[in-house]
């Protein structure tokens, strides 16, 4: 059969689901995608479409027989997925970027062959998603739309942001089969200082013999302020708050209990019993300066989960594995309706996470395997940084090929889900990673997906585009055997000439292009070059404070071009500017403990530690 602007659709809905809003969305999306593809539809040539649900299928299929296209999914969301997958494979769409669908063909009609169009398609990992570290806004609708088009089904957000989302914003995700976890670092959301500090100072950590006075719970930076987690009354209060919170939000299936970011664990007598005074954290997990907090944190999780599940057995409680609580304590099990988000923070991005030759990643790999061995009905998700850690600020992280290998390996060893931090405003730098992650999570074929994406994004310049990304990757790799994603690790060990070359390649690619994405590439590489030049100038003792101030202002328009998150860059550059006033050497964010690791990395990323 042939689809064109003369096509009109007669869509048959599954009888038991005829009023299902996700099924109705699938039907209307098929019509509007065809309309967008052929610049109009609704002519005299009728094409029959049948949408069906087959609960036992475990995925979706699409086939064309005689005059009917048949979309079958095991749930309404799977039917919706089948429409979008069909649109990419048979209607020349590319859902690369939120709000900016690409139609990669101008042919006025499209022949749809008879037979099986998409064999049974199933995901490799059950939970596939994004971690949103910014408030909901009108852009949330674009994100929900992009996620479902790329078959992602999970959004982890900070509780303080979830609470401020409008019902329409939440509904945009739920309608598209995207579960929202209201959680992330949230000790301060369950027990806000404003509410408890005056009446219950004993709920908060004791440091150096005194109870801390907690910062406002809406602070966004590393709080490094924890609770006195062994206090029995505090534990009961957290569980009580969880029960009443989910009563107010019956749409939630998953909430979390995660420490505030940073360190600052309680040192009271009772809490101190949980630290092994002879064993501090580790270099790989950026925590060798503090005691391990795995035992005290996981003890809290056990008790609160039990308390919560007595009253609300269907709710999933998540927790995290991170810095000084990266591994499970001996004997700790992840029960049903519990999940750990394992975050290989400051992992090496020049080696695969499972590469035994990388000292950093093999330590994380060992922790991950221990978590999988600790599963007892619960889940293990990997929390990744496909945009680098927050203050990597859009520097090169070419990951759109490696992601396939990593996801396959995760699936093989028993990981249940994969989530990444992301931003809409760094899509120019990392969109390739986000898009290919979604493909990899469905077990798609790496070679054909890459070929298809390059063809749709770059057209006839696909070979030059491939060379451009190879060059960026070569810069990243030239930083040394290992690379952790903060600016100094990259700039200190790479050559400015390479940045000049890759910028020229982007300028050449963009010349005469009609693609909005390709037009933005030289804006990104121009930024990389300028940043690197400024860094070198500073290292040579030639930069003055005003140079950094000028650079900060020069970068401002790049946020609107989806090159970088300007607020994050501003934090970083303000820390640098401050160094000119204090005379301190600029390493990163002017956090003493962090700078120590960065100094260590100057040699450790080139040569593994000896022990
Ligand atoms: Zn304590
Ligand atoms: Zn490495």
User: Taking Cα atoms only, what radius of gyration do you get, to the nearest Å?
Assistant: 25 Å
What's the architecture of the largest domain in CATH terms? Answer: Alpha-Beta Barrel
How far is the N terminus from the C terminus? 67 Å
Number of strands: 21
Query: Averaging pLDDT over every residue, what do you get?
Result: 96
Individual helix count = 21
- How many domains make up the 3D coordinates? 3
Shape: globular
Label the structural class: alpha/beta
Question: Features of this protein?
Answer:
21 helices, 611 residues, five-stranded mixed beta sheet, Chitobiase, domain 2, TIM Barrel, eight-stranded parallel β-barrel
Please tell me about this protein's structure.
This protein is α/β, with parallel strands linked by helices and 611 residues long. The protein has three domains: 2-91, 2-Layer Sandwich (Chitobiase, domain 2); 127-456, Glycosidases (TIM Barrel); 461-604, no CATH class. 43% of the residues lie in helices and 15% in strands. It is built from 21 helices and 21 strands. The strands form six sheets. Strands 10-11-12-15-16-18-20-21 form an eight-stranded parallel barrel, surrounded by four helices. A five-stranded mixed beta sheet has the order 2-3-5-4-9, with helices on one face. The mean pLDDT is 96. Bound molecules: zinc ion (2 copies).
